[in-house]
């Protein structure tokens, strides 16, 4: 009886093992294809395929905020496109008012304007020494090129900081208004002032409801207005990851990049190149708000992707074009992201290049505030809930 029991258990184990191999057979083949493709097509400098460079007008890199290497990629990609394609507009994920003021810094070199703009974002992942130095370096770069190649900044986001909106209004309008209510109570013929008003209202609504879809809609409408106002054609943008998907996600979300690529009114219709950044063995700085108190949390990130297939890339920077011949990324949806997507699409519907960054340090806050570990942060939250302090 005992022997019979062991025989049955043995056959059950064999059956389960065989079933496991069968269910994972296709996955192993696909993984092998991915690894082979990644190895054969990885490059270690910023250089696009010539067809991609010439066929597109919008070049959008999507990041996760808080990694030091992001600003290096941003500067190198922007100046590369400026040299190779005469791209002279950087579309930034910052408030319209801040973009205008940063342009004033780039034109004049007035450090007070740069300092003032960054002071509005204290406690955010924009308030970083790396970001500050990016604009300093961009100013220096502009001194080295002809006037027609000088880079300008266009902010297309809602007014995340009302201090920036107020500063811009008084700077642009040569006024001394002290209240946001005074700005939104007026009607304007001036397109930029009217845009400021609408983005203040959009900001108030966003932080009341936290509607991410409405924010991306507003960012796209801001782009349309500013593109027509300034008359630029091509541009480079570096935005948060969810703003950079070229197609619909299974939760129904339509990103800024989706509208740029698919909307019939888009000046860059079907001329958008999307590039997604992933990270491995890196450090990241996150901004944490606890009852209006702002802190920074430094995290060690093993990887920001699900599968281990990207681990085959060991360089600190790897750039892979995903739609070359025999690419598995053009045949099915290979989805590395931690959040699921069930759409019946292929990977290159969402982005056409992939960047893997390894061993990045975290960004450095300008005024070096206290960096709290997760245990300390959770303790502070619990203390505030229990003792209301």
Condensed summary:
With 389 residues, this protein is α/β, with parallel strands linked by helices. It has helices spanning 2-41, 50-55, 69-85, 96-108, 111-119, 129-143, 162-173, 180-184, 191-209, 212-230, 256-262, 374-387; strands at 42-43, 58-63, 89-95, 152-157, 235-240, 272-290, 293-303, 317-321, 353-358, 371-372. It has a single domain (40-283, 302-366), classed as Rossmann fold (3-Layer(aba) Sandwich).
Number of beta strands: 10
Shape: globular
**CATH-assigned fold name:** Rossmann fold
Oligomer designation: single chain
In DSSP terms, counting alpha (H) and pi (I) runs of 4 or more, how many helices? 12
| Total domain count | 1
Taking the alpha carbons of the first and last residues, their distance comes to 68 Å
Query: Kindly state the mean pLDDT as a whole number?
Result: 88
Structural class: alpha/beta
Any low-confidence stretches, pLDDT <50, length ≥5?
Answer: 19-30
For the largest beta-sheet, the strand count, sense and barrel status come to: 10 strands, mixed
CATH architecture: 3-Layer(aba) Sandwich
Gyration radius (Cα, Å) is: 24 Å
Approximate helicity band: 40-55%
| Helix-strand sequence | HEHEHEHHHEHHHHEHEEEEEH
* CATH top level assignment: Alpha Beta
Strand content is: 15-25%
